[in-house]
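Notebook entry, structure prediction.
Reason for the run: the old model in the group folder had no record of what sequence produced it. Starting over properly, with the input documented here first.
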Amino acid sequence: MVETNNRRFPVGIQSFEEIRKEGYLYVDKTDIIWQLANEGKKYNYLSRPCRFGKSVLVDTLEAYFMGKKELFEGLNIMEMEKEWVKRPVIRLDMSRAGAEPDTLRSYLNNIFRQYEKEYSLVPAPTDSLADRFDAIIVGSYEQTGQQVAILIDEYDSPLQHSWKTPHHEACTAIYREVFAILKADDKYEKFVFITGITKFTQISLFSVLNNLSNISFEPEYAAICGITKEEVLRDFKPEISKLASRNGWTFDEAVAQLTTYYDGYHFSHENMVDIFNPFSLINALADSKLRNYWASSGATSLLPKFVNDMEVRLADFNHSALLSTIIETSDVTGGGAELFLYQSGYLTIKDYQMGVYILGFPNNEIKQALYETVLPALTLRSAGGIQSTQSGLFLALQLGKLPEAMKSLKALIADVPYSNKKLAGMDMEECYRLILSTIFNAIGCRVEVEKMIATGRIDMVVETTNFIYVLELKLSNNGGIDSATEQIRAKQYTEPFKADKRKVVAIAIELDEKGKGLVDWKEVPNIAASSI
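New structure, fully documented this time:
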């Protein structure tokens, strides 16, 4: 067993100062941060998914601009920064501002009051929020003689959460009023850095600050948030060894599992370095367990606001195309579901050809979370109502217990094609394939629909740790179970998987042509094995 007790993980900690002073593990990004602060543009916007390290980045920038040299001892930045000028820093965390105009004004009022106290500023009773913001910027500059760094974290939070509510326009109006000051006070500002998830272009940050540079796709900043494979292997070897030991894996197998679960993000087509989701990776290494940490943290809560009929459309998103003009410049409210899914971290860049981005799911954690999210809507059941059945199906498939697995599967798909009106326009077999693939993906299986092999096209291949299930589906009025059995045998559907160490199980499934669900099933023995 590898000893890792003396290494502390910054799970849930967003304070750079606390990470450094308390000896938590820190993946050194300070060389990129110095480059951004000193060689980049003056006005910068960075979009990254939630829980991707944006707040730690903002906190690190704050410590840097405040000249807290002692926090950076031993880090890359010490080779680059020689002056350590202390500047005034104005920092706003918009995730604390709620989703209504009253809470937004209240937050800005409170934070401005703190800075007014710090710089001994007394606003007039008639001063607006914009007037007070302006006075803080000018006053801090005049009192220190140094230009100001302005850091705005999670700028889009009130706009995201108020979207499609009566409060959205009022929140937008406050943004336009307050943040227009940033452009007016240009000469007092050294550096302006704004983070967010989704991009609302019609507010002042983008409409008034027309000189705001979107660095989200720039190759030099592709790895400014998140953790690269190189960083994982450099900084986390003891924890990877511990994970391997706990699960009976080799070191390389543990790295492969972490990669499959949490890696796969790309943020620049000019620098396609693989990025791990830092929240999930750090939690997995701290716990020595692979779990869906990101999704369980509430990351999927906004999906219904921005994506309609997702339960029917989900598979299509996994190889979707978006013009570069849309993905790089469009407003999330008018850019379509794919744009929201990309900005929020459910899709990532897979390829780029002639001005078109090809998007897909980054990893297993995200894919399973999405399918789990849409399954209740697809099956017309509550999430709580199907969790026990899902768990039973997963366990039965893992153990190769077919009767129990088919019983759970039958319960999950009963009457769904018949009852779900969103499926009315689909071919009935296509309907069943959608429902079954969603169920299997939602429990974490690897699923391939209509897999092409030399002898034909297998309806569905479902993989677990110890088994490969080859499924052939037939409607009752199209030959049913006998026809499915004959097709598996005649086209030797199990043959391509013979080299795999896992047990291969072929199953013929008969489905009701009117959408009433699973009628019958049968395990089809391997011909070669049965003839011995």
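Summary: The longest strand covers residues 467-475.
The old model has been moved to the deprecated folder.
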